Amino acid sequence: MQPGDRLFVLHSDAAGTCPSLLWHIIVGRDGVISGLIAWDDRKTVASVAGAIVPNINVERNATQPAKPQPQEYEMMVTEIGGQHRNANVSGTIEPNGWMNATVEGSGVACHNLRVPLFVPASSG
């Protein structure tokens, strides 16, 4: 990780059509998204690649900085080995650090996932 990168980590139990998930996602300062998602108790692992969707908001004669807005993103998930299954993940990253996600793919549908921004414990 580089300074300014954000790390999102989640471990969730299976629910409905959504298997147990383990997320380790890095969003770079440049908006590039990479990482790993594992499911079925880490029996299956997939690589993640994506990006923040550019959101250009120009305001003529603005006197104050614009209020931070949620950032939209899209990711492609590709199973490593195994059946080489694919899935798409889309959603938003809120200014408060939460990643909202929807996963759609072969045999998986996860809606309303909330992935927290990882904040390391202070060393003090």
Report on this model:
The protein has 124 residues and is mainly beta. The protein has one domain (6-52, 67-115). It has strands at residues 6-12, 21-27, 32-39, 44-52, 71-79, 86-93, 99-105, 108-115. Strand 2 and strand 3 (32-39) form a beta hairpin. The two termini are 22 Å apart. The model has no long low-confidence stretch (mean pLDDT 88).
Mean pLDDT across the residues is 88
Per DSSP, the total helix count is: 0
This entry's quaternary arrangement is single chain
Give the tally of β-strands. Answer: 8
Give the structural class: mainly beta
- The succession of helices and strands, N to C, reads EEEEEEEE
The percent of residues in helical segments reads: under 10%
What is the total number of structural domains?
1
The first-to-last residue Cα distance is: 22 Å
Largest sheet: 8 strands, antiparallel
Low-confidence stretches: none
C-alpha Rg (nearest Å): 16 Å
Strand-residue proportion: over 45%
Shape: globular
- Strand numbers in spatial order across the main sheet: 1-2-3-4-5-6-7-8
In short:
The protein has 124 residues and is an all-beta fold. It has no helices and eight strands. It has one domain (6-52, 67-115).
Structural features:
eight-stranded antiparallel sheet, mainly beta, globular
Explain the layout of strands and helices.
Elements: E1 6-12, E2 21-27, E3 32-39, E4 44-52, E5 71-79, E6 86-93, E7 99-105, E8 108-115
Antiparallel strand pairs: 1-2, 2-3, 3-4, 4-5, 5-6, 6-7, 7-8
